[in-house]
Every structure is written in C-alpha cells, then in structure tokens.
Specification:
single chain; alpha+beta; Heat Shock Protein 90; 6-stranded antiparallel beta sheet; 33% strand
Amino acid sequence: MREPVAPQSETSERGNIVELRIPSRAEWVGVARLAVAAIASRLQFPIEDIEDLKLAVAEACTNCIQHASQSEAVRIRFQIDSDKVVVTVQDTGLGFSGAEVAPKQLGEAKESGLGVFLIRSLMDNVEYELNPESGTKLTMTKHLPT
C-alpha cells in the first residue's frame, strides 16, 4: 500500500502552492478535507466558507475516485493568494461525460450529479477539463469575502 505523499509547498509568482497526492481510495478523502480546512483557516476564511471548501474538495476527490482506477493517485493542488484559494483536483482516469458536469436546473439534479451540483453551488468559480487520455481536472476558486 502506497502512503500519501506529504504536502509540498512552493512560492510562485501568483502566490503559494501546496500540493497533495492521496491514494485513490475513499478513506483518504479526509486528508484532503483537513488540508483545505487548514489552508482556508490560515487565510482567515469564515467558518461557513471553510465548511463549503471542505465539502467541495471532498466531492471532487470522491468523483475522481469513482472515475479513476484504484492504482492511480488523486492529485490536489492549492494555490493560495491573498484574496482567494484555487483548488485543482486531478485524476488520470477515463473521465466521464461532459453532460454530467453541465449545469442543471434545480429540479433536475439526479443522484449521480449531486456532487457536481454541490461543487458549483459552493464555489465561486468551477472549471472542468475532460480528457479521456489524461483524465479529469477540476479547478475550483473560492474568494475571501470582502
């Protein structure tokens, strides 16, 4: 069993970067939740926003785990700026249909699309890159309230 890689940190032109790689198994999603909570707390996000970030990251990681092979890791990248955090969750699985990530009407959410619906509701900006050869990349942005 491969252990999770310890978070790494670096500074870029756009802010601080923290990267985390967890095994593609549900029992490791809590590690990603703890990491984003610590980062958001450090940026002094309100508790409600920290809870939103934790839920969005958990849903994104769970989505990766459902669509990737268990031998692959889920990569989580936190770009930390003074006014926002940008979280990228990426897998190398086969991905899923673009229709699954399309915005739905409130009454149209089905059980399998609920995670995507929640992520879009909780985050300020959500972008997907779907590539059957390289996997799925989800980028979520949450701004500090002004």
